[in-house]
Each structure stands twice: as structure tokens, then as C-alpha cells.
Automatic annotation (TrEMBL):
It holds the Pfam family DDE_Tnp_1. PANTHER family: TRANSPOSASE INSH FOR INSERTION SEQUENCE ELEMENT IS5A-RELATED (PTHR35604:SF2). One of its GO terms (molecular function) is transposase activity. Residues 41-178 form the Transposase IS4-like domain. This is Transposase, IS4 family. One of its GO terms (biological process) is DNA transposition. It comes from Neisseria meningitidis serogroup B (strain ATCC 13091 / M2091). InterPro entries: Transposase_11.
């Protein structure tokens, strides 16, 4: 029951940018208290899988006016959650794309189903970044479109390169990935 409640609360926060607004307020308060640098020179972007309860069954127990107890088993599976495979394990849930500053303070969140590929969800996380900011991200965000987006918005490219089918990374690209 607790997990179900938390999932519903998280989904409610993710709607209508409520969570982003809360993060802005929290970060403003941290800056006012001197705990956070107002303009960081780097942004770190990563995605995390948030698992839901899966297709576990839950029991709905009802008591009528006469005191008769009736139980009905229903699926508690989240209808918006999706399956993905990671490290040979299947997981049901959502993918939380997060932008933090160089100190690790969360600046922006974006939630998608787990089966959504990371590279198509970079641009919403970049909104509001000042020009010249270095954007660090793992290989999941590597695409020609994302590199072009960074260039157009004058953001420094810190996205690790991903090898393509039948085209391994060059030695220079491998060294760059290790550096990042």
C-alpha cells in the first residue's frame, strides 16, 4: 500500500511541472542560505530506473453494513509503467532523467516510461542552462541531434560517445570517454 501511494504521489508531482517548480523553490532557498552556488559551470545528466510494484496482486477487503467481509484480488500494476531489460533483468517502472549541477544538487527532473530511449529526452533537461555550461552525460544520450542541440545553444559537449554497429570507437573517442 505504501509503495502504491508513493507511486501515485510521484506521478502527481510529475504532472504539470509541479516537481520542477518545487525544485526551483528548494534550490533558491539553498542559494539564499549560501549552501549552493547560484550558477554552476557544469551540468550532469543521468537516467535512473524507478521500479513499480510490478504485477503483484493486492487484496481489496470490503466490509458491508451487516459486517460481512468480502475480499477481491485485483492487479495493482501501474497502467503507465513499462518493461525494460537492464543487466539481464526485466524491470517494470519509469525512467527518471535528472539534471544536477557539479555539486550534485538536483536542478531538473523529467520522468518517462522505462522503455523510452534516453537520447530523445535530453533537450527538456537543458532548458534554462546558461551559455558555456558543460553538459556531462553517459552514452545513452549520445546522438547527432543532441550534439547539434548543444552546439546551437552554445553548451559545451561532455556527452560520452557511443559505438555504432560495425563501427567501433576510435582511440581518440575511447580516451575522451575515459576522461569524461
Amino acid at each position: 500500500l505504501i509503495h502504491y501511494t508513493l507511486c501515485r504521489y510521484r506521478n502527481w508531482l510529475a504532472q504539470d511541472d509541479t516537481l520542477s517548480e518545487l525544485l526551483k523553490l528548494i534550490n533558491c532557498q539553498l542559494t539564499e542560505k549560501g549552501l549552493k552556488v547560484e550558477k554552476a559551470s557544469a551540468a550532469v545528466i543521468d537516467a535512473t530506473i524507478i521500479q513499480t510494484a510490478g504485477s503483484k496482486q493486492r487484496q481489496a477487503i470490503e466490509v458491508d453494513e451487516e459486517g460481512q467481509v468480502s475480499g477481491q484480488t485485483t492487479l495493482s500494476k501501474d497502467k503507465n509503467a513499462r518493461w525494460t531489460k537492464k543487466n539481464s533483468l526485466y524491470k517494470l517502472g519509469y525512467k527518471q532523467h535528472t539534471r544536477t549541477d557539479a555539486e550534485g544538487y538536483i536542478e531538473k527532473l523529467y520522468i518517462t516510461p522505462t522503455n523510452a530511449h534516453e537520447c530523445t529526452h535530453l533537450s527538456p533537461l537543458l532548458e534554462g542552462l546558461p551559455k558555456g555550461t558543460t553538459v556531462y552525460a553517459d552514452k545513452g544520450y549520445d546522438s547527432k541531434e543532441n550534439r547539434q542541440h548543444l552546439k546551437e545553444h552554445r553548451l559545451q559537449n561532455g556527452i560520452m560517445r557511443k559505438a555504432c554497429r560495425n563501427r567501433p570507437l576510435t582511440e581518440t573517442q575511447t580516451k575522451r570517454n575515459r576522461y569524461l
